[in-house]
Write a structure and sequence with these properties.
Elements: H1 6-15, E1 19-26, E2 31-34, H2 40-59, H3 61-64, E3 72-79, E4 82-88, E5 93-99, H4 105-119, H5 156-164, E6 168-174, E7 180-183, H6 189-208, H7 210-213, E8 221-228, E9 231-237, E10 243-249, H8 254-268
Antiparallel strand pairs: 1-2, 1-5, 3-4, 3-8, 4-5, 6-7, 6-10, 8-9, 9-10
Helix pairs in contact: 1-4, 2-6, 5-8
Length: 282
């Protein structure tokens, strides 16, 4: 590990109650430093997973809504036993921190951003991280592409949630195989396929990081949330290996939106299996 900045990361673990770990990594997944308490092999694993996570997070920016400014702000992963936070830390660098479920989220966020400012003396200035590489070649929002999934692809129960929560934009149900089973009206099948592929990778990376959040024999992943300058994208567990990917404007009440989505999950269970197969497919 060259230019090891581990000593600076102790600020988070030492001064934020219930914080567990902190790792600084490069965009290509190489560790730049880690707070005490993690084995070197675990630091390497977390660094690689977090680099993949931020790349896929940025690839979902267009799902959050059409805008020229698609700056990624942070990614948050929630488990039953803890949290993981990922933010930019300068040109080609990222800061990841892990904490217990009852951590003060405002306090750890403040400490992380303050540390990034301090790291500015050791790293180059943070750029505006855009996600244009996740767009189509023409730069147009995929939400405007012609064609939809068809009548059988639209899920009315999801449509109702979108219509009733201010700022809610899209939602798509992913089966246990990671393929889209249905979506809200206005979403093209092309967009649903693209988002499903990215979200399947995000779920896989989230699971890999579970030991970073805290040692747990049977870790329970709950959701992964990506915040952009213009909106939110997130992935939540929907039971039986299925997931719900959703998007909202930045001023949307995310707690209300996710609560409503969890409430509608039981009504979507029959869509988890492909047509022609039983709903019990896992």
């Amino acid at each position: 590990m060259t230019a090891d900045l581990s000593w600076m990361l102790e600020d988070i673990v030492s001064n934020v109650p219930r914080a567990r770990h902190a790792v600084l990594l490069s965009a290509d997944g190489l560790p730049r430093g880690a707070a005490e308490g993690l084995a070197e092999k675990d630091v390497r694993t977390i660094s690689a997973a977090m680099a993949g996570m931020q790349s896929l997070s940025r690839a979902t920016a267009h799902f959050a809504g059409p805008t020229a400014d698609r700056q990624w702000n942070q990614t948050i992963i929630e488990f039953a036993h803890g949290w993981i936070f990922l933010i930019g830390a300068g040109q080609g660098a990222y800061l990841a921190a892990a904490a217990a479920p009852d951590v003060d989220m405002q306090q750890i966020s403040f400490r992380m951003h303050r540390l990034v400012a301090r790291l500015g003396n050791n790293l180059t200035s943070p750029p505006r991280v855009s996600a244009q590489e996740g767009d189509g070649a023409d730069g147009a929002s995929p939400a405007r592409r012609e064609g939809t999934g068809g009548p059988g692809f639209v899920l009315p129960d999801l449509d109702q949630v979108i219509s009733e929560v201010r700022g809610a934009r899209h939602a798509v149900l992913l089966g246990s195989d990671g393929l889209p089973r249905g979506a809200t009206s206005g979403m093209s099948r092309d967009l649903a396929d693209t988002i499903s592929a990215a979200m399947t990778g995000i779920h896989a990376y989230s699971r890999v990081t579970s030991q970073f959040a805290g040692v747990q024999e049977a870790p329970q992943w709950r959701q992964t949330v990506m915040e952009f300058q213009h909106g939110w994208t997130f992935l939540i567990a929907a039971g039986d290996g299925a997931f719900l990917a959703a998007a909202a404007a930045h001023d949307c009440d995310i707690e209300e939106f996710t609560t409503r989505l969890h409430e509608v999950v039981p009504k979507l269970r029959g869509h988890e299996a492909p047509q022609g197969k039983g709903a019990g497919h896992a």
